[in-house]
Design brief:
GO terms for molecular function: DNA binding. By secondary structure, this protein is α+β, with helices and mostly antiparallel strands. It is built from eight helices and nine strands.
């Protein structure tokens, strides 16, 4: 394996360590100019001092950061064997593979749950051609739902793909919203007069009407496009 390829892997592991998705976000996270990150990506030469600082700042293993050995952030010991597989890092260096972050956010599908910090649980490596076929943007994220209010559509523990580019609920669908400091998954309908109707697919939950003058208190974060759940 050539040094440029190794450098590309280190750069991608830096992004994972800082919980970012691209070079621009990494430059902001570490306080380096975008041109510096571009040069690292181009020549595959990432200063060891940057890796040491990243290990100190984020708490990741320096062995993992430099060599890919050990347990990755958010992974358990059982995943160590998988990470030693030479195919494991394909998604980190192959431009045809998109690494979609999976958030360990208890994105409430019930009464809602407030949170102040998102933790990246891992990454779902997907072929960009498959993403295009499914009409999923590579800028989306997977979030894990909690609660039972969306039972029948989204069950407790399911992973839902959220497209943050689709924030206009004029088209009925299931959306991730921020309301009263809580993030929730709700079906949204536009009603006469310009208000919104928040619907729980579980009939045991009442519908919520958001009047036009109250819409400012509801932030639509993104539209839910795909649900990954257990088949029974």
């Amino acid at each position: 394996m050539n040094e440029d390829h190794l450098g590309a892997q280190v750069l991608e592991r830096l992004k994972i360590a800082y919980g970012v998705k691209n070079d621009q976000q990494l430059s902001k996270a570490i306080g380096r100019a975008p041109s510096t990150i571009h040069n690292w990506s181009k020549n595959g030469n990432i200063p060891t001092s940057e890796c040491i600082e990243a290990a100190k700042t984020t708490g990741v293993s320096l062995d993992w950061l430099l060599l890919g050995e050990g347990v990755a952030p958010g992974a358990d010991k059982d995943s160590l064997a998988q990470q030693k597989d030479p195919h494991f890092y394909r998604g980190l260096s192959d431009p045809n593979i998109a690494s979609i972050p999976m958030y360990d956010v208890e994105c409430a599908a019930g009464s809602g749950r407030d949170f102040t910090e998102e933790k990246v649980l891992g990454y779902f490596h997907m072929d960009r051609a498959v993403l295009a076929e499914l009409k999923l943007p590579d800028s989306g994220v997977w979030v894990r739902a909690r609660g039972d209010s969306m039972d029948g559509t989204i069950d407790d523990g399911d992973y839902v793909f959220v497209d943050f580019n689709q924030r206009d609920p004029s088209r009925e669908g299931v959306y991730l919203i921020l309301m009263d400091g809580e993030r929730r998954l709700k079906r949204m309908q536009r009603v006469a007069g310009g208000g919104w109707l928040l619907i729980s697919d579980n009939p045991r939950y009442d519908k919520e009407l958001i009047a036009p003058d109250k819409k400012q208190f509801v932030e639509v974060l993104g539209r839910c496009l795909v649900n990954l759940g257990q088949v029974l």
